Amino acid sequence: ERIGYAVVGLGHLALEEVIPALFNCKFSRLAALVSGDNKKMEKVALQYGISPSCCYTYECFDELRDNPDVKVIYIILPNSMHMEFTIRGARAGKHILCEKPMANSSTECRKMITACNKAKVKLMIAYRMHFQPHTLKLKEMVSKNRFGEVRYIEAANGQSSANPEHWRHQAKLAGGGALPDIGIYCLNTIRFILQKEPTEVFAYQYSTPEDPLFKDTEELISWQMKFREGLIASCMAHYKVREIKTLRIHAERGWMFMDRAFAYKGQQLSTSRADGEEEIEEKISLSEPNQFAAEMDHFSQCILTKRAPNTPGEEGLRDQIIMEAIYKSANTGKPVRIKDYKY
Ligand code: NAD
Fold first, then answer.
1. What is the pLDDT of residues 31-67, one digit of tens each?
2. Does the pLDDT value for residue 91 go beyond 90?
């Protein structure tokens, strides 16, 4: 059995990655479309063989309730719209897969979790790195202390942005700038690999004055997270640099480095250690299944076997709590302790 998905929002990610990946899935398939643009939706429906009766506008979204072919609603809208469509989708009795960042505040995240619990539907946040083989390998090496205890982590996610009209550069729609959009990959992947939560953060942010791209949101955010005494992660997210996506884990006797760490594909993992006098560098090659297909098939299997997803709403909430602490630190110039992650 393949679980039917309704894809909400036909933007870049939906059209370029998610919908094609649905045709690459074992347990998931495209069943319906939701868009504010009827012309675009007609074209996409024709291309992928979706009947007009399975095409919905935002206004008639709630009618998904009466479509038994749809089991999951996958929300791929601007961040500020995630809460509304998650709650409406849950009320329509459908399981929800929601893009990252989960929402624009921890208050919104909590409302989304409550609505899904109340409707007895599953909620998963689309953290594709949890299904990426090189990332899973790093997690395994860290948990087995492959090179001794981890001492320091560096992560960077940078790109260059050009269109000030895009919702990503409007705080109301995006909830922030580089941090919730791309910095969240550094944050979430490090938490996932370590299987630990930071207890304290310290951050700095910057936006070039007069640059229309950053009138409303940050261009650069640079932050440190303390996980325990002697284990710090140092991260940056930047909207005005040559693309970079790297993760390096420094342990007592070696380091592990992932290039293209947060990309859709092409991850490269290498390690270095000293063996006596000798310096040993190793490249680890692994096969690369489509990250989006792996993520959706995980959720579908959770539904088929009645399990909880690996990246539930609580995971999105924790990142949101940490991002709020990061902004608080950047705004006050002081470290911020994080005591309570509870839902
Ligand atoms: P996009 O701008 O390409 O698409 C957004 C869609 O929402 C468009 O079709 C647009 O028409 C629609 N929309 C509805 N109301 C809108 C409004 N008021 N303003 C602007 N657009 C509106 O964006 P995207 O890159 O596809 O991102 C969508 C979501 O997916 C975001 O939450 C983003 O963070 C997430 N995303 C995740 C990944 C990933 O790798 N998991 C990658 C890119 C984006």
1. 999 999 999 999 999 999 999 999 999 999 999 999 9
2. yes
Q: Which among 93, 126, 159 is the end of a domain?
A: 126
Same domain as 150, residue 48: no
CA of 17 to the centre of ligand 1 (A): 12
If we measure between CA atoms, which residue out of 27, 102, 170, 45 comes closest to residue 343? 102
pLDDT tens digits, 271-283? 999 888 899 999 9
On whether both 328 and 215 belong to a single domain, the answer is: yes
Kindly indicate whether the ipTM for this predicted assembly is greater than 0.90, answering yes or no: yes
Nearest ligand 1 atom, CA 14: 26
Claim: this prediction has a pTM higher than 0.95: yes
- 53 lies in the same domain as 118: yes
Q: Which residue range(s) make up the domain with 20?
A: 3-126
Q: Is 310 a member of any domain?
A: no
Give ligand 1 pocket residues (Cβ under 6 A): 9-14, 36, 76-79, 99-100, 126, 128, 167, 173, 181
**Encoded tokens for 25:** 């899935």
Separation CA 171–CA 200 (nearest Å):
25
Cα–ligand 1 centroid distance for 83 (angstroms): 14
Domain-ending residue, one of 98, 126, 154 = 126
The CATH number of the domain holding residue 163 is 3.30.360.10
